[in-house]
């Protein structure tokens, strides 16, 4: 139900009422009991989020966001200001030199589809 703001033109009393949209506006002021209560025109409250229906990540702290950003960025290549040690390269599978009397390593066999 929407919240409506009212003001009494007789005594100046202001109040908020929860009313159904189809309900008629109130006229009697609860303070002075005169029929001078008028509904104020307002922009509305928009959405009011109440309760525990929020995602945990909606309102994370600034330190959490900074740490998450640091993890998602690519690793620095060891340039100026880098705090990480450069990663050591693992040796690739390179052919070793052939010894005397040793046969050359066989290349991987290619599979051909029979037609």
Number of DSSP-assigned strands: 3
Helix content: under 10%
Query: Distance between termini?
Result: 75 Å
Structural class: mainly beta
H-E order: EEEH
Unreliable spans are none
- Percent of residues in beta strands: 5-15%
Topology:
Blueprint: E1 3-8, E2 14-18, E3 37-39, H1 62-72
Antiparallel strand pairs: 1-2, 1-3
Textual characterization of the structure:
The protein is mostly beta strands and 115 residues long. The chain has a domain at 3-39. The chain contains 1 helix and 3 strands. It has one helix at 62-72, and strands spanning 3-8, 14-18, 37-39. The mean pLDDT is 75.
Main traits of this protein?
single chain, mainly beta, 3 strands, about 120 residues, three-stranded antiparallel β-sheet, about 10% helix
Question: Quick recap of the structure?
Answer:
The protein is mainly beta and 115 residues long. It has 1 helix and 3 strands; from the N terminus they run βββα.
């Amino acid at each position: 139900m929407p919240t409506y703001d009212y003001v009494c033109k007789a005594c100046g009393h202001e109040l908020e009422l929860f009313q159904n949209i189809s309900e008629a506006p109130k006229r009697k002021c609860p303070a002075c009991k005169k029929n001078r209560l008028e509904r104020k025109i307002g922009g509305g409250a928009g959405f009011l989020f109440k309760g525990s229906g929020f995602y945990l990540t909606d309102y994370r702290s600034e330190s959490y966001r900074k740490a998450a950003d640091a993890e998602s960025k690519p690793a620095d290549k060891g340039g100026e200001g880098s705090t990480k040690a450069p990663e050591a390269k693992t040796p690739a599978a390179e052919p070793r030199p052939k010894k005397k009397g040793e046969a050359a390593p066989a290349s991987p066999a290619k599979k051909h589809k029979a037609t």
